[in-house]
Description:
Helix 5 packs parallel to helix 6 (143-161) and helix 7 (199-221) crosses helix 11. Helix content is 46%, strand content 12%. By secondary structure, it is of the alpha/beta class. The structure holds NADP nicotinamide-adenine-dinucleotide phosphate. NADP nicotinamide-adenine-dinucleotide phosphate (NAP) is lined by residues 48-54, 72-74, 77, 98-101, 126-129, 147, 174, 176, 232-233, 235-236, 238-241, 262.
Amino acid sequence: MNLQQLKKIAAFYGRFTLSFTQVGYLARRVFWPSFTPSFSGQHWLVTGGSGGLGREMVMTALRAGATVTAAARSADKLRALEADVKAAGLSGLDTECCDFTLTADTQRLVERLLAKGRRIDALMNNVGVLNDDLTITAEGREASFGSNILSHYQLTEALVAGGLLGRGSVVVNVTSGGGYNVPLMTSMLNVTDPARYNGTVAYGFHKRGQMVLNQHWRDTYGARGIDFYVMHPGWSDTAGVKRSLPRFRKILRPILRDERSGADTAIWLAGTRPKQPEQELVWFDRKVRSAHAYERTRTTKDTPATLVAFLQRELDKGPR
Ligand SMILES: NC(=O)c1ccc[n+]([C@@H]2O[C@H](COP(=O)([O-])OP(=O)(O)OC[C@H]3O[C@@H](n4cnc5c(N)ncnc54)[C@H](OP(=O)(O)O)[C@@H]3O)[C@@H](O)[C@H]2O)c1
């Protein structure tokens, strides 16, 4: 790592540590009007719903009266979630096994959902990972590209086209403050060359891509009465953080958010559907904020259109 990179990292942590941790959440919460979620009669789909923030969204939505489909990879974890839901005296959970790194698996999930035909009132595009090592899927793609953005695009487009997402539905995309560090660059979304791969950098580009994709969806589907939001959860102590960022977690653990604080804004957005200006913006702690923390990330040769074309080309290639 060179001095320039060190300076950027120091500036990032210096600027955001208090804000993104539980400290920022607790300080801001004092000023919020009361909000009691009520999702009675709604059907939610939460990707990555068996752990971390996704699990929190599932439990909160169930407690607030929704029926919820939780989609995640491990059948064991989904079974554990079912047991927890039962133990908590809740009902209305459906689970779906799906590996979102694979377009074929995501397609099978879409087909099952379409066959069931249940309208989706809230889609939480939550699944996302930061991988340390390069993993190439059986379909020949970098794994986190699949889970972090390609599957979100595939799932959302298919559910809109299939009519399960429609007027009155809401889609909440869960990005990360890591996206603040980079501009939109489609050439960095699916890096399969080990010499060029850096998991943290890849994650940042996926998360920036989600911010841009959200605005594309707002522009494209807003007139159909579907609400789209993108939010970032700050820094929460989840299994994902434990696995991917052990040193970060060791240092910040006492002040990391709990899962409830991390998922709060996603739940609040689904419950309140606030208006927002039509530009690339990000919600964090119940407030809409600039999608650019640094001027340098505004400059890019890519556009929302080139991003969508890139993702669509990947889908058109098929599972391979
Ligand atoms: N925690 C934070 O501080 C933080 C900060 C910024 C942004 N975020 C974002 O918030 C979201 C949730 O993060 P988290 O920390 O809650 O993650 P987490 O603790 O790692 O939980 C991830 C969930 O996603 C599932 N999952 C992972 N890969 C999958 C795949 N390929 N296919 C299907 N399911 C998969 C996991 O189930 P399996 O184990 O079965 O795969 C689990 O249910 C992510 O988009 C992340 O980027 C989190």
